[in-house]
Amino acid sequence: MSKNLNNFKGSFKGMIMMEKESRPVAILATLIVGSTLIIINGILIVLNQNQPLIWASYNAKDLTDVWVTPYSKHPFWGRIVYGIPGLVEKGLTYFWLLIAVLQTILAVYIFFKPKKMKSIGLWLIILSLLTLPIGGGFYMGLILSIIIGLYGLEYPKKFEETFIGKMFNALRFNKSFFEKAVANPNLQRAALTLLFIAILGGLGSCLYAYNVFKIYPTCDLSKPSMADASEILIRGRIYSEPTVYVSAVSNAFILVIKWLILTLSIYFFAFKIVGKEIELVALSHVLAYVYVPEIILIFMPLVFTNEPNLSQTWSLILIPMSWPLTLFYISRLWSLGLLMYALSKIQDITFGKAIGRTLFAVAPYFVITYLWIYPVFNVPGFLIKFTGESSSIIALLLTIFYIIALVVGALKKE
C-alpha cells in the first residue's frame, strides 16, 4: 500500500509539473504589460483633467504658435496624441479603464485555463481596440494585446507557425522561415497576409491623407481651413468618414496587383535569366511576406507636424523628406532588404549577387508600379507621384541598378 501511495504521489506531482509547464507564462506577462500600459495611459488622462495627452516638440497653445505663413516662420513642430478628443471627457475615461481591467482579468484567467485561449483570443482583440479612446497604452499596450489576441486564435500552435508569428519571422530575416515558405507554399495564407497588411497600411495612409485634405479642402495651400487645422494639430482630433475605410479596403486590390507584378518580375529577371528554376506558387508565397513592412503605415496619422512637413517636403541631400515619406522610405527599404535576403537564401548565392539580381529585377516593377499603376488606378491615401522632371532621375537610378548587377556578376548563368 505504501508503494502504491508513493506511486500516486509521484504521478500527482508529475501532473502538477505538466500543468505548470503548459501554462502560458509569456502570454500572461505580455498581456499584463499591455494592460498596465493602458491603465497608466488612462490614469494620466484623468490627471490631465480628462483630456487626451498631447506630446509635442514644444508647447503650442494655439495654431498661431506652429502655423507657417508667408510672413512668419516657426521651427519644426510635431505632436503625437494619446487619446481621442470627445471620448474621454465627462468621466468616460473611467469606462475605458474598466475595459483595461477586464482585459487584465482575462489574462489571469487564460493563465489558469490555457485551453480557453482560442475562444478568448477574439475578445482580447476587441477589448484592445476599445482602449483606443484612452491611447491604447501609448499604443504599445494595444499592439501587444492584439498580437496575443491573434496568436490566441491559433493556440496551441507554436508562435512561429501562426499567422502573426510568420509575419514576425519575415520581419526579422529568419532564414528557416523563408526556406519553409518555399518548401510548403500556401497561396491562401499569402493572400490573407496581403489583405491584412493592405487594410492596416491603407487605413493609416488614407486617414492621414483625409485629414490633410480637411486642412486644405480646396487643395490650395494658400487657403487652409484654420478651424480644422486647429482641431487636428492642436486638439489632436482625427477626422474620418466611410470613404476612408472603403479606400483602405480597396488598397488590397492594388497590393495584389503589385504582388503579381513583383512575382513575375522576380521570376523572369532573377531566376529564368540566370537559369534558375522555381515554382511560381512557391515564389509568390515568399514574396507576399516581402510586403509586411508596409504595415507600419498604420502609424502615419498618429503624428502630425507643421508645414512644410505636413503636406510638403524639404530636401535632405536631394532626397525629399517629410513624416509620411519617412515611413514610406523605412517600409520600402525594409522590404527591399527582405527581398535581397530571401533571394540569397532561396538561390544559395552570396548577398552581393542577391543585391545585383534584386535591383535588376525590381527595375521593371518600379516603373510599372509608380509610373503606371498608381496614376491609372488613382490609388487612395498617401502616395508618391513622379513628374515629367523626374524622368531623368528615374532613368539614372535604373542605369545604376543595371551597372551594379553587371559589376557583381548577378546576371551570369549558373
Architecture overview:
The longest helix has 30 residues, at 242-271. The strands form 2 sheets. This protein has a 3-stranded antiparallel β-sheet. Strands 4-5 form a two-stranded antiparallel ribbon. The model is unreliable at 8-21 (pLDDT under 50). Helix 4 (117-129) packs antiparallel against helix 5 (140-152). It contains 14 helices and 5 strands. The protein is flat. The chain has 2 domains: 1-51 and 88-159; 176-414, no CATH class. A hairpin with a 2-residue loop joins strand 4 (314-316) and strand 5. The chain is mainly alpha-helical and 414 residues long. 61% of the residues lie in helices and 4% in strands.
Number of strands: 5
Total helices: the number is 14
* Widest β-sheet, arrangement of strands: 1-2-3
The H/E string reads HHEEHHHHHHHHHEEEHHH
- Helical residue percent? 55-70%
Beta-strand level of the residues, as a percent range? under 5%
Computed over alpha carbons, the radius of gyration is: 25 Å
Morphology call: flat
Number of domain units: 2
| Low-pLDDT sequence parts | 8-21
Provide tags for this entry.
mainly alpha, 14 helices
Summarize the structure.
The chain has 414 residues and is mainly α. It is 61% helix and 4% strand.
Give a topology summary:
Layout: H1 2-22, H2 25-47, E1 53-56, E2 78-82, H3 92-112, H4 117-129, H5 140-152, H6 163-171, H7 175-183, H8 187-215, H9 226-233, H10 242-271, H11 280-288, E3 303-305, E4 314-316, E5 319-321, H12 323-347, H13 351-377, H14 391-407
Antiparallel strand pairs: 1-2, 2-3, 4-5
Helix pairs in contact: 2-3, 2-5, 3-4, 4-5, 7-11, 8-9, 8-10, 8-11, 10-11, 10-13, 12-13, 13-14
